[in-house]
Amino acid sequence: MDLNGKNVIYEGGFGGIGQHCLKEFLARGVKNLVIFDLQENASILQNLRTSYPEANIFFVQFDITDKNSITEAFKHAVEKIGHFDVLVNGCGMMDDTKVDLMIDINLMGLIHSTLTALPYMNKSTGGRGGLIVNISSVAGLEPTAVVAVYSAAKHGVTAFTRAMANPHFFEHFGISFITICPGITETGLVAHPHEKATFKFAEALAARLDTAERQSPEVCAQNLVELTTSGKNGGVYMLDLGEVKEITFPTVWAPVFKS
Ligand SMILES: NC(=O)c1ccc[n+]([C@@H]2O[C@H](COP(=O)([O-])OP(=O)(O)OC[C@H]3O[C@@H](n4cnc5c(N)ncnc54)[C@H](O)[C@@H]3O)[C@@H](O)[C@H]2O)c1
Fold this sequence. Notes:
Keywords: NAD, Oxidoreductase. By secondary structure, this protein is of the alpha/beta class.
């Protein structure tokens, strides 16, 4: 998709990866940008408005763990910008000591957001279609034992997004889905990993993650936004250490029909 003149909603836009994606979207000529997040970051907002005066940039407060808050946020966004072409589900949290919150933010919230966005974008009911980008993780590709709950939530994101890219759904909604799986990226999310492990006795394994190579959020954001222009429906992309790799999955099961 050519992003010039398009309308984008970015959830979790003030986060470490999100704030760099906002700049990338604006640098590519996005016309209306709505940032959904838990809290406003006035200085990021001001900097963006100063750097990209030709774009309209709005903030809408929301809590992705609250379904009503998601519904209201989309209502407000559409009141401001009329329609949106791209939705990025980029909220996240990693702390396996908080099991329910892990699932609520990383998986349930993302599913509710996606399902809330569909009627606005749905081509078969007068919408314009578009693209939904769901941020999973390398922990949504490989079981990641130190944060087993986070890994489960992110596997859910990968599976949900791949399922939503079904050609039958695409024909109906006119919406493409891509899954982005960043590797370890230098943001607050991965700070103090030993405090975030599923089990206290495995803290040392988590602390070891701190010694792993990581990429900058800037390079992750550049690759993510590039994929919104070049990614294909159903594509699952690993963005690790500055490289992009499309991930393919074997078909290990298919239904056997009676006739
Ligand atoms: N940093 C990494 O190493 C890494 C690796 C793989 C995947 N990811 C994923 O990338 C995405 C962005 O992560 P990040 O590293 O920028 O993290 P971050 O902590 O810097 O940003 C997360 C964003 O989510 C928002 N958020 C959290 N809880 C929320 C809630 N209840 N309601 C609304 N917003 C909420 C935060 O306010 C923040 O803006 C997440 O989905 C994360 O899981 C990150």
